[in-house]
Amino acid sequence: MAEQNPNLIPPKAMEAMARTAGAGKMLVSEIFTKINNAKDKPKKIEVLKQYDTPGMRMILKGAFDPKIEWDLPPGTPPYIENEAPAGTEHTYLEVEAKRLYNFAVGGNDQLNKIRKETLFIQMLEGLHASEAKVLIDMKNKSLNKTYKGLTSDMVKEAFGWNADFVKP
Fold it and tell me: Is residue 128 one of the residues assigned to a domain?
């Protein structure tokens, strides 16, 4: 058998790295895809509870709570999609979620409409492409059309929320 070059990573280490690739922070879009791929409602709820974070709750509340209205034009805004691979040069929607109040009606009246739209586009351009699509679906209240089984009722059941999307 040929001797291995000492400057190369051993095959077992390469296999271990391949198994943990992207093991850092999961994208919200990846979590929603897991929910989409789960077979039944209990499994979908289990995935939602497993990856529960305050940021994800804000995104889901923004997508499903009918009292939250977005002070942005309908549809997809003109933005340049971030082509960086997952886990590299992009921001995370879960982290950016704390700034979503700026785009809701009554959230930040100090910003005019043009500034809100500009900030929203900048946020989209900083996110990974799949998370930008989640943010657009959230704003358009169409998240359940993209991710099968991710419904208002399922989210309320998973988090113990009442009809007002809060814990009683």
Answer: yes
